[in-house]
């Protein structure tokens, strides 16, 4: 039996999922990412990267009771704007600098910032910016560590380094690269004018290719590094939110997808390259399709904040169950969209003695649904979807998904596989072995449950929020 592996290079966890050629999850490995964080920095040592990744792969093989020889191909889902610097020999000069790292905050908005370029948005498709973007941290290394910078011969994103370490090839996917703000999407090449202010030479970067492009077979050293068989085909994957949407069925089950994880994100497909502020657009595995992505910080971290400060003895599922006993509107209680760093008084409006723990939790869930409504509006400037696919940790809760359907007034779809980023990557690998028949395509994307708006709850939300 052939199997395909999807690797999810997440910020919190590395995961490896093994799927058969009909898209059924056979085994999953999941390991916590041991980040080193201090003074605004967020790093992962390279040795730890490979150790954690090989551990996730080993766990997936063991869970599936499959030998490495049975894995025909693999691909990945990647976080964006995480990178490392290497010298000519390929030896790392830095650990992986992960996207939450904010060491370069003071460089944002400088006079030579290419984000100020009049055509930046229409060249790169990136409609957001901030200190999390890798380019600013590259400029920081150039300014603060000039002796190290003079030794740099390669700049690799986290997924570039995966490809390089496994195959020896300096290739990367356009999907992940596009969110760097350094790709000219008019021709799908590096944007030389945007690279110049940061002192980055094009030849230090990996050659960008479309997701789904074969990157090459695993070398003996690469196979040993990850615990697979030499010669196993590695296929270029893509940006995590896009790959999760692909795994959930974006383009077949629905044209919109949401992800409620550490951040809240929404993804849609577009047949045209139409950049707008406050969202990003980038290449997919199809030449005539682009993904559109927008996000904010109103994710599941708000629930983590509440639990940490006010309900340390309760689990997140237990808190959500309490929220399910509370009526829509929470008796006038409202939560702000981002709660980190706030006091309880600042986090909630309209609090009184009548409000229980369930009211506060439901207010957080309703704020998340309202934020998602705003993201959908950004992506659907000319179209409001009839349904949306749900992914991320929030997609595991029936109560939360029904609340979203009621608040948004549209059908919310939960798919069978709870690891869509791994599934999307595995699907990309399987696709490289030949066009999948339509029947197999359907097998890869199975619907577990559909949540339709409750008319009574929907009318109540419409009244509460002054909607038609």
Task: Please explain how this structure is put together.
The chain is α/β, with parallel strands linked by helices and 468 residues long. It has 2 domains: 3-236, 2-Layer Sandwich (Nucleotidyltransferase, domain 5); 249-468, 2-Layer Sandwich (Nucleotidyltransferase, domain 5), CATH 3.30.420.40. Helix content is 34%, strand content 23%. Strands 1, 2, 3, 6, 14, 15 and 16 form a 7-stranded mixed sheet that branches. Strands 19-20-18-17-23-24-25 form a 7-stranded mixed sheet, sandwiched between helices. The protein has a 3-stranded antiparallel sheet with strand order 4-5-8. A hairpin with a 4-residue loop joins strand 2 and strand 3 (25-32). Helix 9 crosses helix 15, helix 13 crosses helix 14 and helix 14 (398-408) packs across helix 17.
Keyphrases for this structure?
Nucleotidyltransferase, domain 5, 17 helices, alpha/beta, 468 residues, seven-stranded mixed sheet, 34% helix, 2 domains
Helical coverage, percent range: 25-40%
Helices, by number, come to 17
For the record, the CATH class of the largest domain is: Alpha Beta
How many strand elements? 25
Q: How many separate domains?
A: 2
Mean pLDDT: 92
Q: What is the global morphology?
A: globular
Computed CA radius of gyration, to the nearest angstrom = 22 Å
Low-confidence runs: none
End-to-end distance, in Å? 54 Å
CATH superfamily assignment of the largest domain? ATPase, nucleotide binding domain
CATH topology of the largest domain: Nucleotidyltransferase, domain 5
CATH architecture of the largest domain, please? 2-Layer Sandwich
């Amino acid at each position: 039996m052939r199997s395909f592996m999807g690797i999810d290079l997440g910020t919190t966890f590395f995961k490896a999922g093994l799927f058969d050629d009909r898209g059924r999850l056979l085994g999953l490995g999941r390991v916590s990412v041991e980040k080193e964080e201090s003074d605004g920095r967020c790093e992962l040592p390279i040795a730890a990267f490979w150790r954690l990744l090989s551990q996730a792969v080993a766990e997936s093989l063991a869970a599936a009771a499959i030998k490495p020889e049975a894995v025909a191909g693999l691909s990945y889902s990647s976080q964006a704007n995480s990178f490392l610097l290497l010298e000519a020999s390929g030896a790392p000069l830095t650990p992986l600098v992960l996207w939450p790292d904010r060491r370069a905050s003071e460089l944002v908005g400088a006079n030579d910032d290419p984000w100020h370029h009049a055509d930046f948005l229409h060249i790169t498709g990136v409609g957001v910016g901030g200190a999390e973007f890798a380019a600013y941290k590259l400029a920081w290394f150039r300014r603060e560590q000039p002796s190290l910078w003079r030794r740099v011969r390669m700049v690799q994103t986290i997924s570039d380094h995966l490809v390089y370490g496994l195959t020896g090839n300096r290739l990367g996917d356009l999907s992940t690269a596009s969110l760097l703000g350094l790709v000219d999407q008019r021709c799908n090449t590096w944007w030389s004018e945007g690279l110049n202010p940061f002192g980055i030479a094009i030849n230090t970067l990996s050659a960008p290719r479309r997701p789904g492009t074969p990157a090459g077979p695993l070398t003996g050293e690469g196979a040993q590094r990850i615990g697979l068989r030499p010669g196993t085909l590695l296929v270029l994957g893509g940006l995590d939110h896009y790959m999760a949407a692909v795994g959930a069925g974006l383009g077949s089950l629905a044209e919109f997808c949401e992800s409620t994880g550490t951040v809240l994100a929404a993804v849609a497909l577009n047949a045209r390259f139409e950049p707008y502020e406050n969202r990003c657009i980038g290449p997919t595995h199809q030449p005539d399709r682009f993904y559109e992505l927008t996000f904010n910080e109103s994710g599941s971290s708000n629930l983590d904040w509440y639990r940490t400060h006010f309900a340390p003895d309760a689990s997140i599922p237990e808190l959500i169950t309490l929220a399910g006993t509370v009526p829509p509107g929470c008796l006038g209680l409202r939560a702000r969209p981002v709660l980190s760093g706030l006091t309880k008084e600042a986090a909630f409006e309209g609090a009184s003695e009548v409000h229980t723990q369930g009211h506060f939790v439901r207010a957080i869930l309703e704020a998340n649904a309202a934020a998602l409504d705003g993201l959908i509006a950004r992506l659907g400037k000319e179209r409001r979807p009839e349904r949306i696919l749900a992914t991320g940790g929030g997609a595991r809760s029936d109560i939360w998904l029904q609340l979203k359907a009621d608040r948004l007034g549209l059908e919310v779809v939960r798919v069978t596989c709870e690891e869509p980023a791994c599934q999307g990557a595995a699907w990309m690998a399987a696709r490289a072995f030949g066009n999948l028949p339509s029947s197999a395509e359907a097998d890869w994307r199975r619907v577990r449950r559909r949540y339709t708006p409750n008319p009574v709850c929907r009318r109540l939300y419409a009244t509460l929020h002054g909607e038609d």
